[in-house]
Design a protein that fits this description.
The chain has helices at about 30-45, 60, 75-80, 95-100, 105-110, 135-145, 165-170, 175-185, 200, 285-309, and strands at about 1-5, 20, 50-55, 90-95, 120, 125, 135, 150, 155, 160, 190, 210, 220-230, 235-240, 255-260, 270-280. It is an alpha/beta fold and about 300 residues long. The strands form four sheets. It has a six-stranded parallel beta sheet with strand order 1-4-3-2-5-8, with helices on both faces. A six-stranded antiparallel beta sheet has the order 11-16-13-14-15-12. Strands 6-7 form a two-stranded antiparallel ribbon. α5 packs across α6 and α7 packs antiparallel against α8.
Length: about 300
């Protein structure tokens, strides 16, 4: 799968395919349906299957003071997309100019620059100036420019429509089982372990630290977790996701203590699976009070993980 940064990166081998368009944050079951339809159509016709997406996410530009929480950063999304059968992912920079692009100009881009054979979108797709490029406008443009359009209905699980907004809400309240149903997998954060201030080691709880690299986090607090990428089987642990107010932290950090582990993980890429939320992040009066709470959190995490097996 190739990464194309902008329309200028498109080559002849990428043109004439079936394309699915959207933000694809979280890559939930609704997104999977869009991608699967595009890949199937492309394979049936022997043409490329492409995904067209945007960075930053449109709503991060449209609502800069209240952006949506990111379910996946770019690296996480890229890793998940690599398993879908897509031939290429094209990322358009979401600028004010792209935001103001008229809907008919956007459809011309699909026809002129991508030579689209077909487009797959969700029933609620909207793009362009005032959101005027919707699924029905695409169908009309397809008849004019010669590309097909397949509109995918909403995916419903247990009577509820799957969406990134719904997944964010589930994560925010600790409903990880529900989020996993909609995602088709447990919710995780992935990254490379960085060296921190090593305060946790001093306090008896060494941690593997990941920087989430999101403008806004979809969840926060103290969690029972499983850590993938250390051994053949996941390891149990307890994690803190937040700004560490007791030590006057500012930047969000995911700090994970692995139970009964003494190895060096610096530079290792790991994946942290959230199993149970234990509590909200708190500011303690001193480090002694913090350590006492860490003992309680570790015991609670062990108990939660034993029940979840």
């Amino acid at each position: 799968m190739e990464l194309l940064r902008g329309v200028g990166a498109i080559r002849e081998r990428h043109r004439g395919g079936w394309i699915t368009i959207g933000t694809f944050d979280g890559l939930h079951l609704g997104h999977a349906a869009l991608i699967a339809a595009a890949v199937q159509r492309a394979r049936e016709r022997g043409v490329p299957a492409l995904l067209l997406s945007f960075e930053p996410m449109p709503r991060e530009v449209l609502r800069p003071d209240d952006p949506p929480a990111r379910l996946t950063n770019f690296r996480e999304r890229w890793r998940l997309l690599q398993t879908t059968g897509l031939d290429a992912v094209c990322i358009l920079r979401f600028t004010d100019a792209l935001r103001a692009m008229p809907g008919d100009e956007f459809t011309q881009l699909l026809a002129r620059d991508l030579h689209a054979r077909g487009i797959v979108v969700g029933y609620d797709f909207r793009f362009g100036r005032h959101g005027e490029a919707n699924a029905w406008m695409l169908e009309a443009a397809g008849r004019e420019h010669g590309f097909g359009v397949q509109v995918i209905p909403s995916v419903v699980v247990a009577g509820e429509r799957v969406s990134s907004t719904a997944v964010r809400a589930a994560l925010a309240c600790g409903a990880f089982d529900k989020a996993a149903q909609w995602l088709g997998r447990p919710y995780t954060m992935r990254g490379r372990v960085e060296r921190g201030a090593q305060l946790g080691r001093t306090l008896g709880y060494p941690t593997a630290n990941l920087r989430p690299k999101r403008r806004r986090l979809p969840l926060g607090g103290i969690f029972a977790v499983r850590v993938h990428g250390v051994d053949a089987e996941p390891r149990d642990g307890v994690a803190s996701l937040g700004t560490r107010p007791t030590v006057n932290g500012v930047e969000p950090l995911l700090e994970t203590h692995l139970f009964d582990f003494a190895g060096d993980l610096y530079g290792r890429e790991i994946e942290v699976e959230f199993v149970r939320k234990l509590r909200e992040e708190l500011k303690f009066d001193d480090l002694d009070a913090l350590v006492q709470q860490m003992h309680a959190d570790a015991a609670a995490a062990r108990a939660a993980l034993a029940v979840a097996r």
